[in-house]
What we know:
The complex is a heterodimer of chains A (512) and B (85).
Chain A lengths: L1 H22 L11 H6 L6 H12 L2 H14 L6 H26 L4 H9 L2 H37 L4 H23 L1 H30 L1 H8 L15 H15 L3 H8 L4 H10 L1 H16 L4 H10 L4 H9 L2 H35 L8 H25 L5 H13 L2 H9 L5 H26 L9 E3 L6 E3 H23 L14
Antiparallel strand pairs in A: 1-2
Chain B lengths: L19 H19 L16 H28 L3
Helix pairs in contact in B: 1-2
Amino acid sequence: MNNIEVVTVFISLFILFVGLGFWSSRFRRGDLSDLGEWALAGRRLGSYLAWFLVGADLYTAYTFIAIPESVFVKGAVYFFAVPYVGMTFGVAMVTMPRLWKIAKKKNYVTAVDMVQDKFNSKSLAIIIALTGIAAELPYIALQIYGMQAVLTVMIGQLVASNAATITEVSLIVAFIILAAFTFTSGLRGAVVTAVMKDIIIFATVIVVIVLVPMYIGGFGNAFAHMHKLPTGNTTLAPLYLNGFISLSIMSALALYLYPHAINGILSTSSTKKLRMSTALLPLYGIGLALLALFGILIYGSTQALALVHQYGAVTMVPDLIYAYFPPWFVGFAFLGIFIGGLVPASIMAISQANLLTRNVIKPFWKTMNKKTEARLAKYFSIMFKFLALAFIFIIQATYSLQLQLVGGIIILQTLPAIFLALYATRLEKWSVGTGWAVGMIVGIALLLYSNFVQFKFPSIETVFFKFNTPLSFLYIGLIALSINLVIAILGSLLVGKLKPAPSVKPSTTGSQ
Amino acid sequence: MNMVSDNVDNTISLETKGTTTQKILVAILLLVPIIVFAITPLYNVQNPKLFGLTFFYWFETLWLVVTAIFFLAAALLLNKMEGGS
């Protein structure tokens, strides 16, 4: 009865969403058989659309599902996401206009085009491209977990049996539809639907954060009903101070290394518009902070906790909404969270496809023309979406945020090749390559050691490495990046010293 | 954007224009919000509370607004320094 209303609203809005996705191919029309048009929306986005697009990179299932779940289960350390979003746009204000200018000057479509040109090394470019592609996969998988969480609650409340199967089938259907409109509309589809997604999400967050505290007797009551969380309830447990700081700073450095974030940056129409939209992005973070607070709020609600008990911690945000709001609002909010996973998944798959075609395949296929390049990228975007989907059917997530943080350890290893290369003139390819390799090995080895030996977990459940005090817990990304940076910088200095004189580099142009 | 791939646009300058004072001001505007966020012990306290929330939670949330204001000022200044249309 009531649950049918939820589903009706959800499906009606989803149809609207799909309609917008297909319509957007006509939005600021361009030749969609050109990769720059398909993947960068013709580089014509102004401040507002860029704000929505880059906001869509940030405002994902990471925000709606993973962070609130982590605060709910583990406590205060996962509020690190708030300093992270504050700081990351400071990093972007410095690095991204410069990247934009270099890209415009040399007509680069991806950051890896710059790596290829700067270091004059095909192998280094391919390594960096593949690292970016790999780091996106767990990020996309996280989006799918978020979508699955919404469907689990909605379908679980609707039918008595077979809920799991229906959820899986619905997820696959949603992905086929998404693949179809990403194929037709490219980044335009993501931008236009991102606007719809953000309006729904903002409305939902504001309504929930105003009304729910009134129903449950405020945050004071929620804190009073909390059991003791491992990393702190009302404040951060001192043992996790370094963990908090290292997670927030490293995440802030990592965001703009992701191919999808850089893709969004390069699609803006000028550095001035880019700066304005970036400066205002911390405001998006307020939504993230409020959602993270849902993880505390839920302790004041026995009804919502009963649903969490039934469907799992990952469904915490949908449960809280379901417990307190009328069916039409539940349908509205659930659709927002659902497309909040779909739209970023689309953007991420576009950027992966872009990298694979342009920076991994094209160097070996010199005769590939523009039409083939764009067509190939479109097919790859479908492939990556379903690869991520397969990933989640095979691997059972114990804890959704860990996926993204593992991706962070991987993507951070591209920092010397991308961020340092924006400024340094003396960086040398072998040093950067060795730094990358050692950083990757150390990162993955520490991750495995920490989980399976130090803590004896059955799967990847932590991204911290435990030292003795005073260091205590540190994000593994920080350790791996530090080693990587030392090798890249010292190596470049050393090689520079050995060379008799800095050779005059012939002006390489473009990236072909 | 139908430029041929090996075209290089030499009209774009990578240099940061502006006076030293302007550059220092931009650095301050960008660094202050970040440094405050990075010094976690500064805000890892219980009181004062707001709407029942401890300082740790509400301060970080509110500091995002301050951050946006600082960054916006930096953006306006940088855009002015860059000149042009």
